[in-house]
From TrEMBL:
Species whose genome carries this gene: Oceaniovalibus guishaninsula JLT2003
Presence of keyword Manganese: no
GO biological process, one term: amino acid transport
Pfam families listed in its UniProt record: Peripla_BP_6
Coiled coil feature spans: none
InterPro entries: BCAA_transport (IPR051010), Leu-bd (IPR028081), Peripla_BP_I (IPR028082)
Protein name from the UniProt record: ABC transporter substrate-binding protein
Segment forming the signal sequence: 1-21
Amino acid sequence: MMKTILMGSAALAAMTGGALAQDTIEVTLGVLNDRSGVYADLSGEGSVVAARMAVEDFNAEEKGLDVEILSADHQNKPDIGANIARQWYDQEGVDAILDVPTSSVALAVAEISSQMGGILIDSGAGTTELTRGQCQPTTIHWTYDTAALATGTGKAITEAGGDKWFFLTADYAFGHSLEDETSKVVQENGGEVVGTVRHPFPATDFSSFLLQAQGSGANVIGLANAGGDTVNAIKQASEFGITQGGQSLAALLMFVTDVHALGTDVAQGLQLTEAFYWDQNDGTREWSERFEERHGAKPTMVHAGVYSGTMQYLRAVEAVGSTDALEVAAKMKEMPFDDPLFGKGYVRGDGRVIHDMYLFEVKSPDQTQGEWDLYDQKAVISGEEAFLPMIEECDFTKTAG
């Protein structure tokens, strides 16, 4: 477990007397994610960097917030993630947990956060259950979910003629959710699902699964997985010559770090949906340059979500004057935001953050002008279209206070 302390106001308070000390709000944030496995590149240490940047850019010290940041590796295992969350809340005084990729871990941490008086601001997990069947008043789901991915990539590919799908699905909550949501979109747009196979999470050898997909009669193989699993599946599909045989791959969740790892010679032409890309505008470029100077790579949408979610949390703490979980979560939902990474958005009553999503296509090698010049933007999907409508029983603004 790693600890980073961003301090200043407490020391200043000690030097200038009791009045200022009374005004200081101590805040402890925990970045909980995969720091060593298949999601480490898209999440990992980069999310700690993003949280630290948010604290600094917010000028927390000047605003009387004394912020401490903890981090730990949940190893993509719900029991490990749950134990860390309990320890943080019980022994370390953590107020909010950030990031938490891997949907099964996120769902466990969301429940513990609600029980133990903390907030989960999730950037890395995709399951829609965080704001539906297993919604909690103190869960904020920031960056994306499987419904938004399906609305973007699934709809675009089906409308373009990819009407027979076979799913290669990671066998846990996220993969199941992504397959389910994309299947609905495919069928709503006139396509059909001809088969599915579920692979262990994580996996390294996809050969038998790809052979099933190859013989399925599908014209689209939907990859309902992420991170290293997606990269390995695409590499092996390329080795088998699957795309040369008339089938196409749909990377239903893919990150800029995945495309960078594959290279545009392998990934060119893939369509994917993201909430953020470093080269969208002056604001994203400026922030991403500062991030890369610290981290050595461009940020993913997960890193951007950690930054933006932390900023919104700190705004709410400042407005409320405490770290009370229910009050801060309610305040986060009251205040719309407009930041350089996600633009204008708001936190809905169920904790779902509503912002635009984007459909991208990976450039060919002759189109790129640098190692991270990877995407062409094809479409903007409004937040209201991208995300599922709120269900009434998860609208916690009706019960707040």
